[in-house]
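Let's practice the habit of predicting before peeking. Look at the sequence and jot down your guess about where helices and strands might fall. Then scroll down.
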Amino acid sequence: MLPPDYLLNNLDDITTLYSDLSTSILQDIIRRLAKTLKSGELTPTAQHQIRQLQEHGLLREDIERHIAKALRVSEKEIRRLFDDAAVESLKYDNQAYRKAGLPPAIIQQSPQAMMILEAGITRANGSLRRLTGTIAINAEDMFERTLNEAYMKVASGAESYTSALYDAVDDMAREGIKTFDYASGRSISVEAAVLMNIRTGIAQTAGQITQQFILDSGVEHVETSAHAGARNIGDVPENHQLWQGRVFLLTGRSAEYENFYDYCGWGTVTGIYGVNCRHSHAPFFPDFQQPRYTDADLTKMNAIEYTYTDRDGNKRTVDTYDATQRQREIERHIRNWKRRLAAEEALGDMARPEVIMQAESKIKEWQAVQREFIRETGLTRQYFRERV
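Done guessing? Here is the structure:
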């Protein structure tokens, strides 16, 4: 059983790595854009097209260099994350096996478990390679689209080179570098995509290893983990509050126990080990164990509320899900202003002091909001989500 908080507290390094990647690419685009617009004033269309092709090729080289570096580092980090998670997930399981007089689950002694682990690592690396491929495509599209829009403004006389450049930088800073998520069909931030892919991959791999040892040991019952703020939408298996922290049968069902696969939605997008799910499961022996969570524990966990002061000075009381959503909102404001600052600094001696001052002021302002929100609610501040 992998602790639910494990997937919140151990992804800082790899998320920061890809946040740095997107920021570096954004700054490269802005530098190339400034150089291309300024070169020769770009009056003739042919000159613009030639210069655009030249800078497009140089930009691609920059992007590929950044991506290659990120992938080299992330492949080592992914192996470490998956190895550590697999070991961590079996600590709780082995307590149950020992009580039942069964041998402990040791990954290195199970060829099937090792194959599952290696397959999970391979999938995660492949997922990141596809993700970075879409980053490169989106970045090049952003450069070409922004450059053409700026050129048209300058060529038509509607704006000066400087004005068109600043408009372009403002637009790119707001938009940021996106990646394409194949599952949802929409563009999302690089950080969100990395978190979703790695978190889900680790959870699924750890769950499959746990299940392999459960089946090898002939275990009949399993227990699911639980955490505050679990999904509370619809019916099972989508509604995780209905099945978290409970004991299930692996084969059939009884008056006391539901079927694990059906009730928890094993193998479905919305069920246990689905996208962004932090729940896991472990072997359970009714003759030797008591459930980890009582009904009172689960009721209290699901009813947790947080009170904080909103921007207008009003006290607001929300459940765990809404509290974490508010935290994500504050983090987005901090990241957006940090990206705005990084984009402006990429202009070098053309950077606008007033924009830099505004961005620095807003960063401090939203960081203060975050500190107060954390103080009032007692939630854990996740600094890696604020980094650019």
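How did you do? The two ends are 33 Å apart (CA to CA).
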